Fold each of these.
Amino acid sequence: MSHLPREKVAKALLHTLKAAGVKWIRYILVDISNSVRCIALNIATREVEEDPGIIFHGIQSSINAHFFVNYADEFGYDSNSGTYENMFPNVETLHILPYNPTHAAVYCTCFSTPDTVSEFSTRAFLENQISSARSAGIHFAIGVEIEFFLLKDGKPISTKNWANDTDLNDVSSFIDQVVDMLSVQTNACSSIEVAHVESGHGQYELIVKYSWNPMEIADSIITIRQTIHAVAKQHGYRATFLPKPMPDIIASGMHLHLSFSDMDHGANKLPGNNEHGLSETGSSMIMGVVKHLPALIAITQPSRNSYLRMKPGNWIGSRQNWEVEGKDAAIRVCRDFSSRMCTNIELRLCDGTANPYLAIGAFLAAALDGITNRLVLCPPHQGDELPNSLADSLDALKQSQLFKDVMGPRLFDSFMSIKEMESQYPIRDVDVY
């Protein structure tokens, strides 16, 4: 089958967008600090009319504008140097924003030259980890649970707790609107399978359908967050994904689930016949994550507020350990209720302040390290105390050869510099609650 010329595809796409009332395309990336940044292209300009293919070319943007707004000089880059990178659109993620229907959005990968992916691109980092796994014959699947608070006038909108039916009635129009809007953004979002009231006051959770495409889940997290923010505003609420937005309240997380298959057979390779119901390769995968936990959590819990979750009663774990169905363990091995077979592992030490491309990519890198090096799984329950502050977790990350290697020197050094600066800011209420 022959392919249409790129210009004809672009022209047809522009015609479809304009017919739908779209005036702008937002080129979106998520920077090292988890800020969602965009530059919008007016698709009615003469340049676009004369060369529709321009929408595939991306947008040039100053590197310090989207990565290093306040940090460039701190780690050796001249903020006035005029260094530019290209935000190249992944067109398969193009979607119209239902909460702002004159705008479409597309997620981008940054390139430093037309043929060179930027060393600072967080999306490219995740793609590299997916590719490394495939090269090793491993196919990873990811799931995610997204927790958040709804506030009104600075207070939770409800004082009810976990799975409360009355509270779900009260927010049903909000949940319905969020899920309806996500259902029309299928190019950039996996479907929502479960919604429920969480344990904290005004706290809710959406569970995203498991996917064998980790990039789809990372994109979904951004789409879901942005949609929740927009719908909350329409209802007079403020949504926050901050782990602990106020004292004396159960904290929010963003739990990541992981399983894997080989590239040849497609069956889940985690379950097996050892005493814990795990395969040898599955055991090695778990050990890879356990081994790298002290450094990994600097990426999956990258804010000072994150470490307020690591207290008794928050069910996330504070030791470098794993358990089968242990909700107080850092790594929980999940079992199917009916078959009792091990199905996946859950990383509980992850929250909404994490860049999903970095968090999922680092999670995959740790798991793959365990598989490729055939690490022997330690006994469950045991383990040293994990770092209990951002500064301490960054010290562990600084010593990690694995993350230095997979992130590359520029992304690694940039992440370290930004987070070390944040960890040293004078304490303010906003940093804590």
Note: The first helix runs from residue 6 to 19.
Amino acid sequence: EKLVLTGPCTFNVFPVMEQLKEVVVNLETSLPANNCTYWKSRIDDRGLHRAGLCCVNIGAVYENCPNLERFMGVEIAMVSHKQTFNKWNGRIKKRFYDYYLRQGGSKEIKAWAKTRWLSRRPVTFCHDVVLH
């Protein structure tokens, strides 16, 4: 399955989909190009979106989307969910940092992680939805 979302950086979708293979995020285009509006982002740090945070939080897919292969163009299939969240997060973080650098980012990983990466595992609530 493929989930395609369009919305602002602050949308905060937390998918819980066992069969999900890919997440595609089309960020809101009503603002000037590449103008990230993520929560509390500094004006001088809005040139690139926060892949893994903008619109969909990558941390929410841990254990909730075990078959996910690609997230916003970043290959993550080889990172197993059969490890602690902290280990999983560390491996995922490296992939998204590399993506950030390929997009033109210039921060060192520690500075990048402080403002552009999740600091803790997000809390997700799963509700069954039954359609009649």
Note: Strands lie at 2-7, 22-27, 70-71, 74-75.
Amino acid sequence: MAWRHAISKNLREIRIHLCQSSKSSRGVRDFLEKHYVELKQQNPTFPFLVRECSGIEPKLYGRYEYGMEKCVSLSDMTSDEILKTLELLVSKGEQKEKAVS
């Protein structure tokens, strides 16, 4: 999964918003338990921001160069679906870099 190493190259920041207890955030909590440590180890200086707040809709924000952001709802997604969504955000960052070059 080479895309995991490209996170810090293609994005500037990832923010994950979730609720600590809601059913719609269950997949996000599972994702963090299963994948956060590995992703952080592969991108040690990259900012992965996790924000918990009661009752909010779970979302994933990817920030690219020049302040451009992409937001994706994670409601009722599984851990694997969230991983695939993150992969898509990373690949969009690669496309944005090629367009600027």
Note: The mean pLDDT is 91.
Amino acid sequence: EAKRCGDIALETFPLDSWATHAMAHTYENQSEPKQVVKMLEETSKNWTRGVSFCQHIHWHKANAHTQLGEYEAALTIYDTHIEQCAREVTCFLCPTLAPC
């Protein structure tokens, strides 16, 4: 049910980063890290426009790569997209990376 609703949300509002985020959680909860990576790559043009929330979605992608044993891909995402958030932004969406 969650996947069906998420698909409808992304089709209807493709720029809604919350829908993208919800779908990442849906796939994570189903232990489908390949689907997380695939979905985030297919929708990246829509959710990479933000600032702090974009960083959190990148975290989901890095986490999926880690679950797949793709550590270099995860580190590249961290180095390219997440580290700056951790250093410069007080980000309520990535509390493990930046102070609240």
Note: Residues 78 and 84 are 9 Å apart (CA to CA).
